[in-house]
Inverse folding.
């Protein structure tokens, strides 16, 4: 799939892993952040003499960090971004949610497309069969020319098999892959994800897994589009492309099969996203804060399972549960379903969509505090003090832990069928 997509955007009949190509991304996606977009704007004009980005219809910007602004310099950055977008004819989406999610909602997750961003979590668009890569500051190339240089990566195929147990969500499955394969196992590779568990999984669950590809060391991850994704893309896709599928005789650098039948809810213990552990090892450990949100896990199925756990119950006094739907559209749907009122009645604090909880700009932790989180990272200082701790887990674990004030297995709060990854 990767080679087919890259051959098209390189304008050649075929490419192979290791080839050096000049690719023309179908989409250039970015959020405004100090040191990135503001630098791109400046360098493109002052160092490369480019007053107008080529093909501005390919670009889209999101203001999803520092929302709302808490200091004049933050609002100044947003002001610069809005002005640049207006000058260039590039859409700027503000206060609509986390850009990686809103990109999908707006149709940039076109099956068969090639998208770049400086942030690697854009890989979640791979859930729709989009080859979406984080290219860090190499994205500047796309601001000054039609194309960017890259080396075609090899592909690792991961087939996920078995029966998903109650209480296990996509989040658990991804971190189990890290545990089984290792955090550098797919370094500089594209992961092609498949198998009956993936086939049965919701689009949201697939986004959750694909968005964490970097923690396998991968450049990105993608899933061949099926009826679910094609239906989602129908009427949204920004450009008309034929979906791309793997050939029956496709070459892979490695093929791995992982059976998740015996997988139970997990936690990822600090200080590394590679530290996947059984939840039972930490059950009963006191926690003070819960974060249910981020580009990884703040979608409807996460809110639904949290509401299922919390319905008719009260969060332990003193525990802070922050629920941040990944987009405004998700917030609206959650409200329509009554999920928001259920969470509020239980004592959760609901916030508008923002990236700011994920990196501790909001709900900052102090020394000695400990959180359960569906955020993306658990490295020291990620959510505040370097002497605080973050345990990554699924949304049901966050909700159950909020009730008891300690890391808690959610399965007693769930039925036998709800709360599964499918």
């Amino acid at each position: 799939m990767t080679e087919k997509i890259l051959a098209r955007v390189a304008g050649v009949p075929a490419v192979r892993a290791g080839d050096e190509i000049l690719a023309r991304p179908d989409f250039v996606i970015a959020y405004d952040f100090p040191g990135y977009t503001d630098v791109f704007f400046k360098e493109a004009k002052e160092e490369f003499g480019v007053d107008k980005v080529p093909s501005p219809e390919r670009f889209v910007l999101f203001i999803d960090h520092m929302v709302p602004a808490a200091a004049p310099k933050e609002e100044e950055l947003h002001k610069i971004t809005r002005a640049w977008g207006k000058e260039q004819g590039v859409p700027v989406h503000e206060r609509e949610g986390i850009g990686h999610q809103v990109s999908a909602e707006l149709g940039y997750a076109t099956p068969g497309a090639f998208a770049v961003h400086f942030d690697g979590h854009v890989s979640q668009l791979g859930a729709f069969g989009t080859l979406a890569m984080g290219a860090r500051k190499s994205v500047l190339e796309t601001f000054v020319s039609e194309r960017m240089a890259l080396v075609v990566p090899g592909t690792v195929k991961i087939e996920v098999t078995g029966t998903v147990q109650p209480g296990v969500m996509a989040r658990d499955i991804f971190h189990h892959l890290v545990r089984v394969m290792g955090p550098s196992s797919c370094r500089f590779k594209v992961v092609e994800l498949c198998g009956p568990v993936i086939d049965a999984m919701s689009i949201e669950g697939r986004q959750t897994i694909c968005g964490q590809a970097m923690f396998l060391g991968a450049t990105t991850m993608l899933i061949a589009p099926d009826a679910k994704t094609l239906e989602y893309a129908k009427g949204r896709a920004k450009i008309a492309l034929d979906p791309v599928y793997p050939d029956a005789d496709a070459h892979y650098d490695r093929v791995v099969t992982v059976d998740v039948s015996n997988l139970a809810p997990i936690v990822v213990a600090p200080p590394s996203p590679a530290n996947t552990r059984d939840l039972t090892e930490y059950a009963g450990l006191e926690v003070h804060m819960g974060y249910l949100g981020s580009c990884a896990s703040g979608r409807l199925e996460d809110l639904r399972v949290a509401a299922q756990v919390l319905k008719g119950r009260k969060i332990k006094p003193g525990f802070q549960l922050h629920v941040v739907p990944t987009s405004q559209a998700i917030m609206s749907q959650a409200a329509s379903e009554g999920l928001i009122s259920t969470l509020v009645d239980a004592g959760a604090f609901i916030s508008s969509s923002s990236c700011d909880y994920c990196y501790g700009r909001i709900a900052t932790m102090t020394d000695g505090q400990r959180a359960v989180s569906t955020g993306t990272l658990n490295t020291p200082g990620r959510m505040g003090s370097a002497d605080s701790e973050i345990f990554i887990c699924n949304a049901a674990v966050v909700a159950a832990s909020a009730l008891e004030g300690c890391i808690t297995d959610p399965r007693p709060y769930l039925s036998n069928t709800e709360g599964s990854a499918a």
Observations:
- The first helix runs from residue 2 to 10.
- Residues 310 and 346 are 6 Å apart (CA to CA).
